[in-house]
Amino acid sequence: MPPRPLPRPAENDAVLVSQDVLSRLKGDILDGHFAPGARLRFAELQRLYGAGIGTLREALSHLLPEGLVELDANRGFRVAAISAEDLRDVSDLHVEFEQRAIVQSVRHGGEAWESGLVLAFHRLARIERLTREERKQRSSEWLAAHRDFHRALVAACPSRWLLRLRAQTFDHMERYRLVSQRHRPLGPSKRAEHEAIQAAALARKAELAGELLAAHLRETTETVLRHAPQFMPPPPG
Amino acid sequence: MPPRPLPRPAENDAVLVSQDVLSRLKGDILDGHFAPGARLRFAELQRLYGAGIGTLREALSHLLPEGLVELDANRGFRVAAISAEDLRDVSDLHVEFEQRAIVQSVRHGGEAWESGLVLAFHRLARIERLTREERKQRSSEWLAAHRDFHRALVAACPSRWLLRLRAQTFDHMERYRLVSQRHRPLGPSKRAEHEAIQAAALARKAELAGELLAAHLRETTETVLRHAPQFMPPPPG
DNA sequence: CAAGCAAGCATGTTCGAAAATCCAGCCGCT
DNA sequence: AGCGGCTGGATTTTCGAACATGCTTGCTTG
């Protein structure tokens, strides 16, 4: 069951093949199409993405420092493993990054930030109002909207580095959420929480927005951890 | 003036050509052989490192998410720019990472950590006892020892993610230090500070070690910033 | 003379053939 | 049976030729 048919229409605006492959490959790792720990063989990747070996290597090399794939010499690339320990580790840092970023974002955000946030929230809310069944069918749409919403919240944070690191940890958190979701039913919508965070942000209550966001993220992590045994690989012993 | 002669003897133990090129290229960017903002042309890189284009692209793709190089489509790779603003940004986060990491490291470190630290400090101290002239000649040796010393300090920190992010910001801090050093005389040795930090760590005074380390790093950043106009590119206007 | 265009060159990007490496299974030996 | 070495096939790694793109220069035209 290949993740996607071969030369997927350029729905993204990637100019370079390597960038296009990169985003597709990353998406397929984050949503669990490639299981944690799975080997990534070039023959298969070539078939799936229709790119040459060199191009694939370039994309995989990009994912290496992000911690999404691992490489051991002459044995090729593997999807990075997951563990409850790693989840707690990355989650703690991620919550902190998000909290700090949103506080600064609320304090520095101007009109453009407000508009962007309102728009992103609106798009997310439209999907989250649907029934569970509909949400399930349009999950990739929800995923993009959710991602955009969280990015919009922190978009006005002036620290480029904080945003960069937040983006890194966000990816990993997303992978944990999505991988765990494959092994349990879709949870209830977090619509109310998203709305509360957005409201606090627009009301310029920076500290409150930070607390709400942190709580939202912590709860998500706890939910994933609660279901962890169902999808976590057993310890190597 | 090429950074180094062509097929440098394999002084590191990199099994893969791409990994070897990666570490050399990274080193040459960090120490300013390739100036911030400079274009990285494949013809030149091929001549310098004796590797094929594909291999070079792989190494550059690795440096992309680390923020050391940038890519714009069909225009190739450039060394990432520097600025006083970026330095403050990355420095603030770096100081915090180091401080938290050393506190945890001191609390969790066992015998192996202690030995490693003692050894790393000893190696660094040997070089820092030399005269300024000698230190200048053996700067690459000092660089490695300094790097190892700081790594040894935080090595026992149990958070893999904290260590990973610390390593990322460390690289950028090192680049700022080295690039600025090319435009001003070598500063005085930080020997006493390093010794104080090591002593506090070995005495298991976690908080003290954290404070000393943070102060050490902040002072370094301030020194660099004080000399910033001499090496920072003027604002694009 | 300025604006627009086109040709030519410099450079970036992609791809898969060829070499290197690893690994599983087989064989012979103790 | 257990161990060590060997071989063939599977896989990874490297490389640069071939193609694509962007930039400069110099010509043409209004």
TrEMBL record, chains A, B:
Parts forming coiled coils: none
Domain HTH gntR-type, first and last residues per copy: 15-82
Keywords for this protein: DNA-binding, Transcription, Transcription regulation
Pfam family for this entry, one: GntR
InterPro entries: GntR_C, TF_FadR/GntR_C, Tscrpt_reg_HTH_GntR, WH-like_DNA-bd_sf, WH_DNA-bd_sf
SUPFAM superfamilies recorded: GntR ligand-binding domain-like, Winged helix' DNA-binding domain
PANTHER family in the cross-refs: HTH-TYPE TRANSCRIPTIONAL REPRESSOR GLAR, TRANSCRIPTIONAL REGULATOR, GNTR FAMILY
Protein name: FCD domain-containing protein
Organism: Falsiroseomonas selenitidurans
